Amino acid sequence: MSYENPQQPDGINVSKTHPLAEFFPLLTVVVVAVVGLVALLSLAAGSLARLVPFEYEQKIARVVAAELLPPGGTHTDTEGYLQGLAQRLATEMALPPGMQIHVHFEDDDTVNAYATLGGHLVIFGGLLDRLPSENALALVVAHEIAHVKLRHPIVAMGRGATVSLVLGSLFGITDSSAVRSLIEFLGVTSTLSYNREQEREADDEAARAVLGVYGHLAGTEALFELFRNMAARDLARPPEFLSTHPGTEERLARLKALAAELGVSGTVTPLPR
Amino acid sequence: MPIELIVVVVLAVLGYVFGQLAERRHFASIRRREREYAELLTFSERRPPPGRWQTALVGGNVVVSVDYFKRLAAGLRALIGGRVSVYESLLERARREAILRMKEDALTRNAVMIMCVRLETASITKGKGDQISSVEVYAYGTALMR
Amino acid sequence: MLISNIEIVPGHRVLRHLGMVQGNTVRAKHVGKDILAGFKNIFGGELTAYTELLSEAREEAVARMVAHAQAIGANAVLNVRFSTSSVTAGAAELFAYGTAVVIEEG
User: Fold this and answer.
1) Can you give the residue range of the structural domain that contains B33?
2) pLDDT at residue A265 greater than cutoff 90
3) Residues of B in Cβ contact (< 8 Å) with C58
4) Structure pTM?
5) Host domain of residue A53
6) Pick from C19, A13, A4: which is nearest to B119 by CA?
7) How many B/C residue pairs have CB atoms within 8 Å?
8) Tens digits of per-residue pLDDT, C11-44?
9) Considering its fold, how many domains does chain C have in total?
10) Of the residues A13, A219, A272, B31, which has the maximum number of CB atoms within 10 A of its CB?
């Protein structure tokens, strides 16, 4: 019997592919798959959510109202005024039957306004204080009503739940935090373009409603000028209100283009103090 | 781009550059020492050649850590499945290194051959998320001395 | 004490088989060393501190197995095998086992 160890060839147990040649196609596949999956499923969920009757949305809103909405009753004058303005705009916007708008005032210095489930709008004190005219405020209120009319809050809820579900199941597969932050980033960015599209729709609806109520768009561009000033003052941290929205310049340009097209001008209504 | 993603990219580049450099150097060292110790024979056979031998249990171990790039690549691979080739080279390095250390142990005893070589691989720190993930390989066998 | 992972001792007869003996130890990694290992986790490479730690732990497992064998009057442990398992995150068990025997002297 003979014992020997002949020299063995090197590299049989190691794949010949260059690590980067494997990495980049892998990354591409993962990016495309995650973005595609999130986009497809959230689109489907959004379309389904649109079919939910508004009454059900109101019921959901009643359940979560305590968390979503500021406690009312302390600023009845302001809320009454905002509600009246909203009513005029809503009539102009021809909301479907049964869709009521409820405006809430949040006494907070935040420059923000949002629409949520069940036709509830929240206007923040910080925004109200900084707006120079009723026309600019009307554009904000109409913009938020347009979100309600176009069913954006319930669509956002449906899409949000779906995206969380997709990201959650992908998180289950990997325990690498690097991969998780990549997936999260992809999930968020792939829904942003859709959000911007919603904002453009709402902007257009709002401009038409303000035009209908006041007969002109004078004074409304002050809203975007306010955003522009804020962004200039606070470069590092633009307000959250803007992050999912199209750029201020783009929105201002669209509004000005619409005003120029109509060629009507008028007097600006001041805000009651 | 969120800050944590930038951190991931920077660490992956660092991990790739230094990891690949270290891997190339390690393989060169492994090949050199394998030639050097070629005269010491190793077998996973259980029965020693007939005759009267002195015996001793010899072993060598190594713990290797995965670099950030490899971990990221493996993390992506886990999403779609398939061969995780970046880990293949890592384990290959670890096994050959452990065998070489076992041989070094045997050489200090003037052994002629090592019988019944067994290899053990254990992921010693199977942590969650970003905890250290590393693998230990232990090679052991019975050294035969005249 | 003769320790071997083959089943026979070349040139010696086994007189008595005394059954299986085992030795184990569980070791947790050192916090200070763990921080250094964290850097290695980015660049890759050998974790020398862990290599030494596990090597010492394995010696201890063998020593315990030998203590068992001595206690029952054996003079050799044959067919020794090692096993490592991570019990919880950050701790590993090193385990050695084999057959305790009495072999003829000389």
Assistant:
1) 3-145
2) no
3) 59, 61, 138
4) 0.75
5) 27-262
6) A13
7) 141
8) 888 999 999 999 999 888 766 666 666 677 777 8
9) 1
10) A219
